[in-house]
Write a structure and sequence with these properties.
The structure is a single chain. With about 180 residues, the protein is an alpha+beta fold. The protein has a single domain, classed as Beta Polymerase, domain 2, CATH 3.30.460. It contains eight helices and six strands; from the N terminus they run αβαβαββαββαααα. Helix 5 packs antiparallel against helix 6. It is globular, with a radius of gyration of 16 Å. The two termini are about 25 Å apart.
Length: about 180
C-alpha cells in the first residue's frame, strides 16, 4: 500500500467508516485525491471526499449531518467543508452514472487497524477524465496509470461505457 496518512486524517476516515458500520449510511466510497493516496505516491491534498448514496432530497443528508453534529463535528470551514478531526470533509451524492458505478465497485481496504471503502484506481482515473480540472486531475491521471495493478482494460471500458473516450482523446496529449 502507498498510503501515508496523518493521525488526524486516519481519525477522520475512522469516524466516517463508523457511520457505515453502525448503519447510518448504507454505502460510501472514499474518492478524489485522498483515495488516490491508496494507489500512488503521497501528494498534498487539502480535503477528503466521499461519495454517499444520501437519498432523495435533504432528509437523508440532514440526518447524516445531525449524526455527525451529535458526535461533536459541526464546524464548517470557509469553503463549506465539515471539519472532522481537523480535516475538511466533503460528502457528495453520486452525480453521474460513472460515480454510481464507482460507488458500487469500491473495495474495502485495511488501514491502521480498520477498513475504509475506497474507489478503484480505474474509476478514480475515469472520474478525473470526467471532471478534467486541468493540472490537478491530469497529474492524478498520470500517477494512477503508473500504479502497477492499474487495469487499462477496465479503464478503457469505463471510458466507453460512460462516453468519456472523446474527452480522454483530448486530454491524452496533455499528459505527455
Amino acid at each position: 500500500m502507498k498510503e501515508n496518512f496523518s493521525s488526524r486524517a486516519l481519525k477522520a476516515l475512522a469516524v466516517v467508516d463508523r457511520l457505515y458500520e453502525s448503519g447510518v449510511v448504507s454505502n460510501y466510497a472514499l474518492s478524489g485525491g485522498f483515495a488516490a493516496l491508496f494507489y500512488t505516491e503521497a501528494v498534498s491534498t487539502r480535503d477528503i471526499d466521499f461519495i454517499f448514496p444520501i437519498g432523495v432530497g435533504l432528509d437523508r443528508a440532514s440526518e447524516l449531518y445531525a449524526v455527525l453534529e451529535r458526535k461533536g463535528y459541526s464546524e464548517i470551514n470557509s469553503e463549506g467543508y465539515l471539519l472532522i478531526e481537523g480535516w475538511p470533509v466533503h460528502f457528495n451524492p453520486p452525480l453521474s452514472a460513472l460515480q454510481l458505478d464507482l460507488l458500487a465497485t469500491a473495495r474495502r481496504r485495511k488501514v491502521e487497524g480498520f477498513e475504509v471503502t475506497v474507489a478503484r484506481p480505474e474509476h478514480l482515473a475515469a472520474d478525473s477524465v470526467a471532471m478534467s480540472r486541468a493540472e490537478k486531475d491530469y497529474a492524478r491521471l498520470i500517477r494512477l496509470r503508473r500504479y502497477p495493478y492499474f487495469n487499462e482494460e477496465l479503464f478503457e471500458d469505463l471510458l466507453l461505457r460512460f462516453n468519456l473516450r472523446e474527452k480522454w482523446e483530448t486530454i491524452l496529449p496533455k499528459l505527455t
